[in-house]
């Protein structure tokens, strides 16, 4: 059921937002796998000219395995569209990302795109952060600074901050950039834009998993087999 919902959202985004001669940002995570498969199918069937920019090692491998054209931001610093998943989406289309540890490169690529499109299944849809996603907000940090940052986060914003530990390796998770990840489990709702800026001002913080005012449209694959489309609210 969930995989089918992911597939529906991914296919809708690829069908609606990808045209020939596009430079396309390819996100990371399980939903993106379906998007890349659909993209490869369209490229082959319609003979599309598409250049793909990855957001992670996983995305790079997906692009290559599916026979798509791989490039980078040095050669293509401006993208037409970036398509990515999310761990949680609130009613303002703000996102929590970084459950898979790729938040920094994902945010860089999204920031280079004219439009940023999000694909997710129904479990990721919330009114407010924390309703569905219980693992906190990921924060990528320089390794030498993780202890002081952990203390500052808790002192300033409350909640609990944990160093993310690896599963099949002794010690912490190390990102594609060679950094550590903290997961900040907040205990109340905040003004997320202000919090995002404040966290980024702490020395040693590389990036946060808060994606505020970036997503233009979100496609949710629903349990009943439909796709629910949400546009960024106009305030």
Describe the protein in words.
The chain has two domains: 1-125 and 212-222, Rossmann fold; 137-207, Alpha-Beta Plaits (2-Layer Sandwich), CATH 3.30.70. Helices cover 31% and strands 26% of the residues. The protein has six helices and 14 strands. The protein has helices at 2-17, 30-46, 57-65, 103-111, 146-157, 192-200, and strands at 22-26, 50-54, 69-70, 79-84, 88-89, 95-96, 113-121, 137-141, 160-163, 180-185, 205-208, 210-211, 217-221, 227-231. The strands form three sheets. A seven-stranded mixed β-sheet has the order 3-2-1-4-7-13-14, sandwiched between helices. It has a four-stranded antiparallel β-sheet with strand order 9-10-8-11. Strands 5-6-12 form a three-stranded antiparallel β-sheet, covered by helices on one side. Strand 5 (88-89) and strand 6 form a beta hairpin. Helix 1 (2-17) crosses helix 2 (30-46).
